[in-house]
Each structure stands twice: as C-alpha cells, then as structure tokens.
Design goal:
Blueprint: H1 6-24, H2 46-59, H3 65-74, H4 80-93
Length: 101
C-alpha cells in the first residue's frame, strides 16, 4: 500500500483539475470541488476511466478497470471532490479498493 503524502495529494488534485479543464473545455479556475462532473461540466462516466489510466501511468499503479468499475457501482463519484477522493483511494489501495465502502 502506497503512502498518500500531502505532496501526492496536491499532485493528484492538480491532475484531476487539469484533466477536467482539458476534457470539458472549461477554464480550470471555473472548476470547484462541489461541481457535478456530468451536469455542471458536461463530462461523462468514461472520463473517469481515462483519468485512472493517467494515474496508473504516472504513479505505476496496478489496478484493473473491472475493479474500479465494481467500486464505482457502489460508490459513485459525481462531484469533482468525489472524483479526487476516489483517485486518492485508487492511489493508496489499487485493486484492494473493492474492499472499501
């Protein structure tokens, strides 16, 4: 299990904001944690899959998309904050994320 340092948390938060700004074609400064990725940013559920792939590559994570899919069925990540928190869990737990919640 990886340690989630404050530096890593900041990197992941920044990564999520940059990703959403780019994919949703909005100014990063207009995004806040309480926004709904789908209704406020016009995003879609597939975006999270791409975001996890980015995390996997950046941090050398080992998580299967099937695993993240199972987790998200029980723990939907609808707001920007929920996406960020789920990314934190992916980083720390990897495939063991299904044991959460």
């Amino acid at each position: 299990m990886k340690e989630l340092t404050s530096e890593i948390k900041s990197e992941i938060r920044e990564l999520v904001y940059d990703y959403l700004a780019d994919e949703c074609e909005v100014d990063k400064g207009d995004i806040n944690d309480g926004m709904s990725v789908i209704s406020d940013l016009d995003g879609d559920s597939l975006m999270f899959v791409e975001l996890v792939e980015t995390l996997k590559k950046r941090y050398g994570l080992s998580i299967q998309m099937q695993t993240i899919g199972k987790y998200l069925l029980k723990n939907a990540a609808e707001t920007v904050e929920e996406v960020i928190n789920t990314c934190y869990l992916v980083y720390v737990k990897e495939n063991a994320i299904v044991d959460e919640g």
